[in-house]
Amino acid sequence: MLQPKRVKHRKQHRLRSQSKGIATRGAAVSFGEMGIKTVEAGEVSARQIEAARRTITRAVKRGGKVWIRIFPDKVLTAKGAEVPMGSGKGSPDKWVSQVKPGRVLFEMAGADEDLMRKALKLATHKLPVKCKIVTPEI
After folding, report:
1. Residues 130, 81: Cα–Cα separation, whole Å
2. Residue 14 backbone class (left: φ over 0; alpha: ψ -120 to 50; beta: rest)
3. What is the DSSP code string of 6-58?
4. How far apart are CA 35 and CA 28, in angstroms?
5. CATH code for position 129
6. For every one of its 138 residues, what pLDDT tens digit does the chain have, with 9 covering 90 and above?
7. 77: which of 45, 84, 117, 130 lies 20 to 30 Å off by Cα?
8. Does any domain span residue 113?
């Protein structure tokens, strides 16, 4: 799964306000012929990214090329079950990537168009945000 090799701080603030507005960076299909674009803001975990990637590669029977355009660089913490209030912040639990509406998550090229569309549609079901399938604007 994806996660940074090293980070400056082990724990981070949540900062939900970062997900306001629409994406300006990474909003266009740059590498492939087709991609998955978010319609709403949210957090995509490393496990969800990996699940979507596996779905795409299996659907096209390892044909074509897949680009992952997001990286989970933010840590979320969690406390154990039945832990009393207080005693500080929980331990690092999972890595997430904050996405804004309009961000391209995955791109694909080198396979049949119908097959790519089907594979990307299957991958959208693995993601926690609403997505749509897009092609590069010419």
Report:
1. 30
2. alpha
3. --S-SS----GGGG-S---TT-S--SSSEEEEESS-EEEEHHHHHHHHHHHHH
4. 9
5. 3.90.1170.10
6. 899 999 999 999 987 777 789 999 999 999 999 999 999 999 999 999 999 999 999 999 988 999 999 999 999 999 999 999 999 999 999 999 999 999 999 999 999 999 999 999 999 999 999 999 999 986
7. 130
8. yes
